[in-house]
# Entry
Amino acid sequence: MKWFFSLKALLIVYAFLAGISGLAEALAPHQFVGSFLTSLNADGAFMAQTTGVFQAGTAIIAFMARNVGDKVALRSLLAGFTFINAGVVAVAVQQMVSRGTVSSDGIGDLIVHGLMAVWFGYYLVANLAKR
# Structure
């Protein structure tokens, strides 16, 4: 069970989830983002695709970083991944509150990104404490 909660496991799980959803958003924005929104115009599809490419890129970074030993590099990665996931949660909550709508896809997204933010934040704080 200890392996499940390891930093290496976190980076692999994040790489998998970000890679799958990033590729889905980049390659099929109407189908992927359409589960969150009622409609998606051409401009929205373009933004979804660029966001998907970015997300797939973070998956590659996470997977390649699973064995990083340098504390400064690790701290930078953890801070960035904590910020990304906490930011997604903040933006999603703000949108749900302002629109007054909540979907099951939106709640699932909040849960996944919220857990990732907490998990990355935990390792960031633990890494800072080891200084």
Observations:
- The chain has a mean pLDDT of 88.
- The helical segments are 7-27, 29-33, 42-64, 71-99, 104-129.
- The CA atoms of residues 16 and 59 lie 7 Å apart.
